[in-house]
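Ex. 9. Protein: Extracellular solute-binding protein.
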Amino acid sequence: MLKRKALLMSLTAMVLAIAGCGGGGATGTGSEAKQNEMNKAPVVDTTPVKLKLYFSNGSFSDQDVNSLIVEALNKKYPYISIEVIRPGKGTTIEELIAAGMTPDIIYASNLDLTGFKTLDLLEDITPLAKAHQVDLSRFDPVLLDSVKILSEKGEMYGLPFFAHFSGLFYNIDLFDKFGVPYPKDGMTWDEVIEVAKKLSRSDNGVTYKGLDPDTIARMAMQLPVTLVDPKTNRSAIDSDGWRNIFTLAKDIWSIPNNTPDKLNSYQSRNWFMKDRNVAMLPYNNLLNIGLEDAAKNGLNWDVAQFPSFKEKPNTYAHVDTQIFAVTKTSKYKNQAMQLLSVATSDEVQLKSARSTARLSALKNPEMKKQLGADMAFLKGKNLQSIFKSSPAPAPVYSPYDSLVRNISFQSFEEYFNGKDLNTALKEANEKINKWIDSNKK
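Predicted structure tokens for Extracellular solute-binding protein:
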């Protein structure tokens, strides 16, 4: 009997000891279970759902949608399908809202987020990302910050998918034709202009331009400067930054034989890739927007580091990243976040980097090492020159900025044709403010 009683006491002690090893009730095993439960992603309804995905620009083709989004979704979340909507007649974002067809997800540049915020389509997705265990530490912090700059509270309006980079693309054949050494990495604008002077000439009835910077709007991205103050919605063109841009653009386009038929025409890409009469083109990522076809048609090209201002060495245009944002009105926010998590996964990001030469939003160095690895026409090209520069911080843009761009173009043309610089900027300042006052609605 005593032995039996001792055995029972021994078993009881063992049970208590085991319980003690678990941390003691509510503060031990129970709390861990509760924490594990909290760390789990939310249970998402797997009823088939079609998400409306609005692409506000053309940097994502239908082929990209299928290879980078649809295929990955089918593997992980087969109950999610997408309806692609692009801007057109009857499908502007304002028209979609008015028709009760507000998208679930918006794909846009960080430069265009101001407009979508004005339409009250954006909200902080940080809680949603946390609930779905999206590891934000994987992202390049500079790109992640570009999604937060519209909010004084640091609210995150979406997840970056990829970022544009800038490079100095050049036509090897034109350099060889005129016996000019190829551009080197680390050159300043002044040095590139000197090279351009040797290449800008007329030969056998053809005028060759040594350098075309596209537009003053593109050049302004490097400082960076805006046309309108986003806080006051008043003109910001009468500034030292714009004086620098106007002066540099005039220095470039005043080179004999280097003046385009029309200034700020957005045609420099075509002149370089199709007409092949521009020797150097400082531009953003051309690797997946026509350069392969241009190479097939005879363009012999390479790329060097983007030219720098002396006061800002190794800096190219400001952060220009493409973003997926879940709209505030979506009824399927959890499914939308699942799509975002797929799009920003290592698998999809690496596939995008290798097969489309897009610069990944992730800070994983492998993404840069394997940029364009599956694109045969990039073999042997100086792609690592791209990474010798970093982007300038992205500014906040006023919704009016792009709407008054033509006023800045006109002002520059007047300056180029002889008007005093300060007068041209002062008059442009007045015209921009007048336009804003007349078009506030």
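Check your answer against this statement. Confidence is low (pLDDT under 50) at residues 1-38.
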